[in-house]
Design goal:
Blueprint (H helix, E strand, L loop, with lengths): L2 H38 L6 H31 L4 H27 L12 H11 L1 H25 L6 E6 L2 E6 L3 E7 L2 E6 L2 E5 L3 H7 L5 E5 L2 E4 L3 E8 L2 E6 L4 E4 L1 H12 L2
Antiparallel strand pairs: 1-2, 3-4, 3-7, 4-5, 6-7, 8-9, 9-10
């Protein structure tokens, strides 16, 4: 069985766990608010209809939460400054509010059209957008806050980028400073670091190095190669989306289409 085949079931389990957690969390919020409404009304507000309406409202939030969290992660991983990120979250609030009332009207209008007095789904959406904007702000802010906390936790969990690499030579461990590395090549389950003094075999795979090396200094250009950014002298097109990276040492390396856009973004930002 391939590694991809093994990872697929694990990914499905994680998605199912997230879905179950969202359903439980929003169900708890629905019960809490329905209980609050019942108690504050002195029992005048019918319990079961109030609970059903709360579940209807928060079923839509359960659908929207995962996309919101994904958007927060992408915004925080972007190179945007603070003002741009806040602007993105402000736009997101309007989009999420519109989606919330739109989906609610689409799904639940037959059950909550006030006995036919709300004639259309559009009329329900207009009424709900204004009435629920305040609560939508609160719940949207809460979901975004959870996403920000998760993003911060992920950043803290990322291992610190190394300043040296460890190589083995004739049974002994050799320390190779990152500043001495020009490029790194895959060598089976290991990797080979190329320096001005020659190549040395590293006790680590290229994929592992790609995840640990500082992204502002090293970039992957091919499934078999990582290069140091300040050693790139130029990029020459080979046609059909392929290209060649020319290092300052004169070494030419293949740049695959998969990594071309990422390399262009880094070179343009230098």
């Amino acid at each position: 069985m391939t590694p991809q085949a093994l990872r697929a079931p694990a990914g499905n389990v994680r998605r199912l766990r997230l879905a179950a957690l969202l359903v439980l969390a929003w169900s708890a919020v629905a019960v809490l608010l329905a209980t609050q409404g019942y108690l504050t009304s002195g029992g005048r507000q019918a319990w079961w209809p109030s609970l059903g309406y709360a579940f209807a409202i928060f079923s839509i939030w359960a659908l929207l939460t995962a996309p919101i969290l994904a958007a927060v992660r992408r915004i925080e991983e972007s190179r945007w400054d603070l003002a741009q990120r806040w602007a993105a979250y402000a736009v997101g609030l309007l989009v999420v509010s519109a989606l919330h009332v739109g989906l609610f009207a689409l799904v639940w209008w037959p059950a909550y059209n006030d006995g036919g007095r709300i004639a259309t789904r559009w009329a329900m959406g207009e009424r709900m957008f204004v009435r629920n904007l305040g609560t939508n702000v609160i719940f949207y802010a809460g979901v975004v806050a959870v996403g920000l906390l998760a993003a911060r936790r992920e950043r803290r969990a990322v291992p610190k980028a190394p300043e040296v690499l460890r190589a083995r030579s004739r049974g002994a461990v050799r320390i190779v400073p990152l500043d001495a590395v020009e490029w790194i090549e895959a060598a089976g389950n290991y990797a080979e670091a190329h320096t001005a003094d020659g190549a040395v075999l590293l006790d680590e795979s290229l994929a592992s190095l790609a995840a640990r090396l500082p992204g502002d200094r090293f970039v992957r250009i091919h499934r078999r190669a990582i290069v140091r950014l300040d050693r790139i002298a130029g990029v020459r097109s080979l046609g059909r989306g392929d290209a060649e990276v020319r290092l300052s040492s004169g070494q030419g390396l293949r740049l695959s289409r998969r990594y071309r856009d990422a390399l262009s973004a880094l070179l343009n930002g230098r």
